[in-house]
Design brief:
Length: about 500
């Protein structure tokens, strides 16, 4: 073994990022690498981040985590998508679901057939051809081999970290409680050599994973990696979060309700609801945001409303020297499409695939950072799309978003869709064409052209094609049980 070999990894921080990393490393890195996680009870975690997207299921599979067990432990519900309310115009509503709409063919996705159908007088909405979307609308859910459904979870972030902590400790991760007060670097290499806790205890390691949240204790405060500020594209810089008691059955989707200077989330768990407002401080004060949120929630509050400030953007390098930033320490793109936990997972998997067993190499670091770049740019573009393509005339904030400059890559995607009805994915895109079209149609963007493939069908053939697809979905959704009833027998939290 070379003397640069990685024998000890220290993870700093015990939020969702820290414990997801510890769980994956302790399960998948092999027996020769020691994993230590340091966290501070006094500092605590950010305490939000409870909606996920479907690939989280793959992460659990990779780790051998049983779905029913983790859902029970985290009081989880199923998520089929997000209901966007007041985003296109005030009183508009659409669901961005995790499903595929209709059937694609060589020429492109189903929306070309739907657009052709519209021209020929069909009145059905785009979403009527999507199983997940219709199930969400009717609060239905079930797992079935005959009619697979694409879903994610709403879960309690604190309970999820606790679950992963138990999982990791059983597999040998050592947890150290304490506040890190000093980060030491090797003068010759600039690598991090050790961290020192307020108690005086020093822990040295070969590789450090910075999961210390927004503060980026290692990646920024020690290594000065730099930050790209994206707030000119995503102007919201604040959030206020509060939990409430449930007053109705949990819906199988997240709600995102646009207000005059931001948007409100509602994430239903089995026992409570996570609520919050993401807003832009230039247009709304913290006090007004608090009033707005409290005026728009159902159910008794069970926590004090808490303001969280953030700067949208990304650390210039996710991996720098012998330190990899995972989670909020690596940057933050606001939670509109619940992408942060997903980015934690992809960072972990990418790092595991490139794991520098015999020492950090320049090429490995470069590969990691380049894949991260593509992924972050693609997520950023998808989130900016929601803001840019709004039609609201009622507030300065939304008008600012309509007029703001957007990344070149997104400007191209919007123009291509507007002019041709086509969507092509970029490297790193984590959302499918279906997601892009659901949001673009949902917010009122109708293309002037589309592929003429449906022309091969007569009116009667197109009608039968569309009607049979819709019927199959309607019949399948009718057979599904209520989401709440399914949870009660599949994964009740008590
Ligand atoms: C308003 C908001 C809503 C969000 N909603 C979603 C969502 O719906 N879906 C989603 O995927 N993501 C969401 N996110 C993102 C999600 O919350 C985070 O990605 C996730 O919680 C991971 O956070 P973290 O572990 O990186 O940081 P944190 O939870 O902040 O954890 C940091 C850890 O570092 C420790 N630490 C810090 N400094 C020290 C020190 N000096 N010594 C020792 N320990 C230290 C802390 O104690 C803590 O354990 C949201 C974020 C925000 C701000």
């Amino acid at each position: 073994m070379s003397d640069t070999a990685i024998k000890h990894v220290v993870i700093t921080g015990g939020g969702t990022a820290g414990w997801m990393t510890a769980a994956a490393f302790s399960k998948l890195l092999g027996n020769n690498i020691k994993v230590t996680l340091v966290e501070s009870d006094e500092i605590g975690t950010v305490g939000v981040g409870e909606a996920t997207i479907p690939p989280i299921k793959n992460f659990h599979k990779l780790l051998g985590i049983n779905e029913q067990e983790v859902m029970k432990a985290t009081h989880a519900t199923f998520k089929l998508g997000i209901s966007f309310e007041n985003w296109g115009q005030v009183d508009d509503e659409y669901i961005h679901s995790f499903g595929v709409t209709g059937k694609e063919c060589w020429a492109g996705e189903f929306h070309h057939f739907w657009l052709d159908g519209k021209m020929r007088g069909h009145k059905d909405e785009f979403g009527e051809y999507c199983y997940e979307l219709q199930a969400a609308k009717q609060n239905k859910f079930a797992l079935s081999k005959d009619m697979p459904i694409n879903y994610a979870y709403h879960l309690d972030a604190t309970l999820y970290a606790q679950y992963l902590r138990k999982f990791s400790e059983k597999l040998g991760t050592e947890r150290v409680e304490g506040k890190i007060s000093q980060v030491d670097k090797c003068p010759a290499t600039g690598n991090i050599s050790a961290i020192t806790l307020a108690s005086g205890k020093t822990i040295s390691a070969d590789l450090f994973i910075d999961c210390t949240g927004f503060r980026g204790l290692l990646i920024e405060q020690a290594l000065h990696t730099g930050y790209d500020d994206w707030s000119h594209w995503l102007p919201c810089d604040s959030a206020i979060a509060v939990q409430t008691k449930s007053v109705s059955k949990p819906k199988p989707y997240t709600r995102s309700i646009a207000h005059k200077a931001g948007w409100q989330w509602q994430i239903p768990l089995q026992h409570r609801v996570g609520n919050g407002l993401v807003f832009c401080s230039k247009y709304l004060s913290d006090d007004d945001a608090r009033t707005l949120l409290l005026d728009n929630i159902d159910g008794e509050t069970i926590t004090e409303p808490r303001v969280i400030k953030f700067k949208t953007g990304r650390r210039r390098k996710g991996w720098h020297k012998n330190c990899v930033a995972i989670g909020l320490s690596s940057g933050f793109i606001e939670p509109l499409e619940s992408t942060s936990i997903h980015l934690i997972m992809t960072a972990i998997v990418r790092l595991l695939r490139l794991f520098p067993y015999n020492g950090v190499t320049e090429s490995g670091v470069k590969e990691y950072n380049s894949k991260l770049d593509s992924e972050l740019n693609a997520v950023r573009d998808f989130i900016v799309l929601h803001y840019k393509v709004n039609q609201r005339q009622d507030s300065e904030f939304w008008q600012h978003c309509q007029q703001m400059e957007i990344p070149e890559s997104l400007a191209h995607k919007i123009a291509l869709f507007k002019e041709t009805g086509r969507v092509f994915l970029d490297d790193g895109d984590i959302f499918r064409v279906d997601s892009w079209t659901q949001v673009m149609f949902g917010q009122g963007l109708i293309p002037t052209q589309y592929h003429q493939i449906a022309n091969v069908m007569s009116d009667d053939e197109l009608h039968k094609f569309l009607a049979s697809m819709k019927l199959a979905i309607t019949q399948a959704v009718e057979k599904l049980p209520e989401h709440d009833d399914f949870i009660k027998h599949y994964c009740p939290s008590n």
